[in-house]
Backbone:
DNA sequence: ATTATCTATAGATCTATAGATAATGC
DNA sequence: ATTATCTATAGATCTATAGATAATGC
């Protein structure tokens, strides 16, 4: 059986690292992603050098290019990793006609907030980087627009949502989406509050915006 | 009468500029601030060079240092300019015991969103720059915390807010603040919607979060 | 032989300062 | 004389590539 890269244990091919390899058990690429997540969110994307990322991942700057094409590559991977799970959940919820739309919308909000606030870094802050508007990240924007659309569909499937004019429903979907995004940023600033309860409270607030009485 | 700097018209002291001075009627410092606002919000702070700012303001890179101490100086000035007007309004509203707190909270939300969404650039996006966490911007954070506190005070002054437990009121103030902040970012993405109506809708959504029936 | 890593560095920046220059003001 | 600007540049980066090296695999 070939040694799984990243299990940390076995003999490793290739020249040994100059510094001790971190014992996180992650693959080298995932260690780079974790380092990038921390540095991009705490110091800023443009302000983070390839050297800083590589060295936090326990390798020399040039070695990074063995695993990723460059900084943009790291950012693109991190961005997609933040939306993909929520989008998968949204797909399931949209298909599940057996539950009231109110419940399903609440669950999507809750999970979305829990996912982003629960991680070790504030990856939500990456969404708003000006750099992310570039064509290079069109894939991410497409996925994100799909998630936004799922919010809108669940919203109009609620009783309160169905009673709204089309424009008004669109507007409220934007407000809900804005709440989710903003709350992720505020949560970080606020610091220590239980993530689960906070996510639940945000979901309730979203339903109040839609017009559901909670 | 000494010629007011920035009126654009009169004879100017000093070596002439190599390129035509923009005819915005702004002082050189304000032209730098406007250039920085555009570039920081569209390309990112760290990604914007002093040369880019200076040249957009119609002067050579080195000349910028005659007016500002550097890039950080520009960012600090822009940040404070976004909170100061809302904080002044908040002060007036807190002092005005003659109006129902519901109305005053609504007005603060509306004005805050209108101010940030109404400007030519998305200055709200500067709040979330990781660079802004540095000690250098402590002044800004102090002012911003005051604004957050004003939201909290108006919230507990409403009938619905007064009925909440202390923790729950704090939580909802964070949610309202998160909504305002997030909405500013979403609005930009959403593009063309009338700012006034959007600000009003956000204010209504904030009151719903508090628990007021609107 | 293959692989993962290293060291070294060319080329391209970018910031901030030094010192020159071309106006007006008196 | 004062002021606002310019040109030039030293010093400090940072990215991405070239080429060497030290392991394992067969």
Residues:
């Amino acid at each position: 059986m070939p040694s799984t890269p990243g299990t940390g244990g076995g003999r490793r091919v290739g020249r040994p690292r100059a510094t001790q390899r971190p014992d996180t058990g992650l693959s080298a690429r995932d260690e780079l992603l974790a380092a990038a997540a921390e540095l991009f969110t705490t110091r800023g994307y443009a302000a983070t050098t390839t050297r800083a990322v590589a060295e936090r991942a326990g390798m020399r700057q040039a070695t990074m290019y063995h695993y990723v094409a460059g900084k943009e590559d790291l950012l693109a991977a991190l961005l997609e990793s933040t939306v993909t799970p929520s989008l998968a959940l949204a797909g399931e919820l949209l298909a599940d006609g057996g539950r009231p739309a109110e419940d399903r919308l609440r669950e999507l909000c809750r999970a979305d907030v829990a996912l982003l606030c629960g991680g070790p870094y504030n990856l939500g802050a990456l969404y708003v980087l000006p750099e992310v508007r570039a064509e290079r990240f069109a894939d991410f924007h497409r996925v994100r627009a799909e998630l936004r659309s799922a919010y809108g569909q669940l919203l109009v499937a609620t009783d309160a949502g169905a009673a709204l004019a089309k424009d008004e429903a669109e507007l409220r979907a934007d407000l809900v989406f804005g709440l989710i995004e903003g709350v992720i940023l505020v949560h970080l600033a606020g610091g220590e509050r239980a993530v689960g309860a906070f996510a639940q409270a945000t979901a309730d607030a979203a339903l109040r915006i839609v017009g559901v009485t909670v």
In short: The two ends of chain A are 55 Å apart (CA to CA). Chain A touches chain B through 39 residues (CB under 8 Å). Residues 82-210 of chain A form a domain with the Tetracycline Repressor; domain 2 fold (CATH 1.10.357.10). Residues 11-16, 49-51, 61-62, 65, 70-71 of chain A lie near DNA strand D (CB under 10 Å from a C1').
